[in-house]
Automatic annotation (TrEMBL):
Reactions catalysed: 4-imidazolone-5-propanoate + H2O = N-formimidoyl-L-glutamate
Annotated protein name in UniProt: Imidazolonepropionase
Gene that encodes it: hutI
Keyword Iron listed: yes
GO cellular component: cytoplasm
GO MF annotation terms: imidazolonepropionase activity; iron ion binding; zinc ion binding
Subcellular location: Cytoplasm
Amino acid sequence: MELVLTNARIVSMEAGNEGYQPSQPKTIVIKDGRIDAITDQTVDTSDSFVVDCTGKLVTPGLIDAHTHLVFEGNRANEFEMRLQGVPYQTIAAQGGGILSTVNATRKASIDQLVETALPRLDGLLQSGVTSIEVKSGYGLTLEDEIKMLKAAKELEQHRRVKITTTLLAAHALPPEYKDRPDDYIEHICQEIIPLVAEQELATSVDVFCESIGFNLEQTEKVFRCAIEHGLKVKGHTEQLSNLGGTELTARYNGLSADHIEYLDEQGVKALAQSGTVAMLLPGAFYFLRETQKPPVDLLRQHRIPMALATDINPGTSPFADLTLMMNMGCTLFGLTPEESLRGVTCHAAKALGYGESRGQITTGFDADIAIWNIDHPADLSYQVGVPRLYARIVDGAICND
Ligand code: NIG
Ligand code: FE
């Protein structure tokens, strides 16, 4: 059966000014999971399921294109330590931070990981999300990384949502490889990437390119191997210092360079050449009480598409609400509400490699839609914690969750 949305004031997020202005009421016809037609004409709905959108606003379903949604454990104790002045890097160097989540995650089964991820997933869905990228990176062994990727994909069996998985084995140095980072990189390239590619457990590979992560040379090895295995690359780059990871990511035609608070103009120019998306993560900036902001003006000048994501994880961004990130994008980084909305729709889709099929309300695109009890799109960046979602539609299926 077809799904038809009537009286839809559409914020299409197509390129150009008009993409952000709500349209006059229109009818959207959805067939086989795709947007089949958008019309001012009356449509025969005798054979269709009809949703009357009078008084509502219709946007693309939101896309959270950078998350660590699957993990076990809790790091509230580290939050307390950081509030007393202990830096994130120091906690990591003492074996806490990412490694404390690794310890907990290694002990969990796939079912447990799914169960603990579901409440966080529900938070995201309530903020209008229809597509989510989920990274591994808290396993750091072949077996545990695979377990995380399988748990992430398994979430699709529990909720209507589209999950894209990313291998982040190069997130931190596992204790077994202490003082032998090059051996671990070798293990990632020889064992983990080939298997993940062969079993199609992920479509991209990420590296934490940072003083407390992996250096440029190690990052490049992982990128080269990923590409040889038909996977796309992306990077956690320039989060805490400037190592040049963004330029490297751009050189390998990365999908996105993420965090980028310490990015300089040379790095921005590299992004411009490759078409790599600048992924801004204001939740981590806020929660780590950073003061160095990403170079938003330079990114604008060079017309780099900017995406926004939750980065939801237990250490630096424990926030399961993408509209909160839209608010922070505006208040902390100076984005306009339009830029924020582009950041979680069309630009986030590009960051996942789905720029031609998701993130816009356009004929032929996937019917991933959010219907809101609001009047103007700026409302999504403006309020936080007020339930505004009326319904989500994923591949043409309506969910009132
Ligand atoms: O995106 N920067 C590295 N990874 C995560 C943090 C992970 C953690 O602290 O558990 C991030 O901020
Ligand atoms: Fe992250």
